[in-house]
Amino acid sequence: MKTQEFFNLLEEHKDKVLQFEYATNQYVAANYHITEVKHITIDSVDCGSQADRWNETIVQLWESPAEAFKTNHMSVLKAFGILKKVGQMKAYDLDSEIKFEYSNATFHTAQLFVNDFEIRDNNFIVKLTIEKTDCKAKELCGVPEQSKDTPINEEPCCSPTGNCC
C-alpha cells in the first residue's frame, strides 16, 4: 500500500481505534507506540546486475513493557497526528510503499507490508503480512518461475555455474 493511500484511510476513519494484525489473529498489543518513522531510499543492484532505486516509508511499532496493563489501543486520530507531525519535519514520498516494523517476544523483527484493512465495530484494523524474498532477475539469470508442478531449481541463480553475478 502506498503511503498516501494509507493516510487517506486514516483520514477517512479517524474516529476509530487503530489496531494492527501482524499474523492471523495475532494483534499488536494495546500498549504500542509509534517510535520511529523512517524515510528510506533503497539504491540496489540485483543478482542480474540491474540497478534499481525506490523509496519506502517504514513506521516502527513498539510495545512498552511499562504499559503492559493497557487495554485501550491508540486512536486513528492520534496516530495520524503523529504521522502528520513527522511529515512537517521531513517530507514523505507519498508514492512510496508503507511498511510497519514490529516484533515482540514471540515474533521476530520484520518489516511488514499492509495487505488489507478491516473495519470491525469501532476498530480500524490494519492487516499486515510478510512478503517472501524473491529474485528480481529470474528471466535474466535463467531461473524458471515455479509452479506447484515444477520441482525446485537445484542450481540457484548465483551458483558458480549460474549466468549472473
Brief summary:
The protein is 17% helix and 39% strand.
Strand content: 35-45%
- Report how far the terminal alpha carbons are from each other: 31 Å
Class by alpha and beta content: alpha/beta
Order of strands, main sheet, comes to 2-1-7-6-5-4-3
**Radius of gyration over all CA atoms, rounded:** 19 Å
Report on the biggest sheet: 7 strands, mixed
Question: Helicity level, as a percent range?
Answer: 10-25%
Shape: globular
**Strand element count:** 7
Specify the oligomeric state: single chain
Low-confidence segments, ≥5 residues, pLDDT <50?
none
Mean pLDDT: 90
How many domains is the backbone divided into?
Answer: 1
Question: What sequence of helices (H) and strands (E) makes up the elements?
Answer: HEEEEHEEEH
Number of discrete helical segments: 3
What does this structure look like?
The protein has helices spanning 3-12, 76-89, 138-141, and strands spanning 17-23, 26-27, 32-45, 51-63, 97-104, 107-120, 123-129. It is an alpha/beta fold. The chain has one domain (3-141). It has a 7-stranded mixed β-sheet with strand order 2-1-7-6-5-4-3, covered by helices on one side. The longest helix is centred in the middle third of the chain and has 14 residues, at 76-89. It is globular, with a radius of gyration of 19 Å. The chain starts with a helix and ends in a 24-residue tail after the last helix.
